[in-house]
């Protein structure tokens, strides 16, 4: 009787409910994760500049606390020239976490986060509710 296996309960990460409204940061995080899963995310200044200049960039996310003013000027200028939507996030550490530049520990908490000043979405992947919220926000601007 000691050999009986008891089924273990596994925790499923909670997704926002379909009727629950998403804010801009939650929608952006969802879009970046889907783009990363579909290999449609350029991270770092070099990859991002190449993606924008090739006309592949659909959305650019820039960290407001970027310590290189030349990066900010370059990215803003390229986004304006190539008509790429630009969204600013407050922290480059947060952007690095959202862009997948971190390790996830056993509890699901991000560890060893690498800071990221800019990332560009080349391919959104699949249509999500986060993408719809993001598109609505961009239309309002």
From TrEMBL:
GO terms for molecular function: structural constituent of ribosome. One of its GO terms (biological process) is translation. GO terms for cellular component: ribonucleoprotein complex; ribosome. Keywords: Ribonucleoprotein, Ribosomal protein. The keyword Ribosomal protein applies. It holds the Pfam family Ribosomal_L7Ae. InterPro entries: Ribosomal_eL30-like_sf (IPR029064), Ribosomal_eL8/eL30/eS12/Gad45 (IPR004038), Ribosomal_eS12 (IPR000530), Ribosomal_eS12_CS (IPR047860). Residues 1-20 are annotated as: Disordered. Residues 28-120 form the Ribosomal protein eL8/eL30/eS12/Gadd45 domain. Signal peptide: none annotated. Gene3D superfamilies: 3.30.1330.30. The keyword Transferase does not apply. Belongs to the eukaryotic ribosomal protein eS12 family. This is 40S ribosomal protein S12. It comes from Pycnococcus provasolii.
């Amino acid at each position: 009787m000691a050999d009986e296996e008891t089924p273990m309960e596994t925790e499923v990460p909670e997704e926002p409910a379909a009727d629950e409204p998403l804010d801009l940061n939650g929608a952006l995080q969802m879009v970046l994760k889907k783009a990363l899963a579909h290999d449609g995310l350029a991270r770092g200044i070099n990859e991002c500049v190449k993606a924008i200049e090739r006309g592949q960039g659909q959305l650019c996310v820039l960290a407001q606390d970027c310590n290189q003013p030349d990066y900010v000027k370059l990215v803003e200028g390229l986004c304006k020239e190539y008509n790429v939507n630009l969204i600013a996030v407050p922290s480059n550490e947060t952007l690095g976490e959202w862009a997948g530049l971190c390790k996830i520990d056993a509890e699901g908490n991000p560890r060893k986060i690498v800071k990221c000043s800019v990332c560009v979405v080349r391919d959104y992947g699949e249509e999500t509710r986060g993408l719809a919220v993001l598109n609505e926000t961009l239309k309002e601007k």
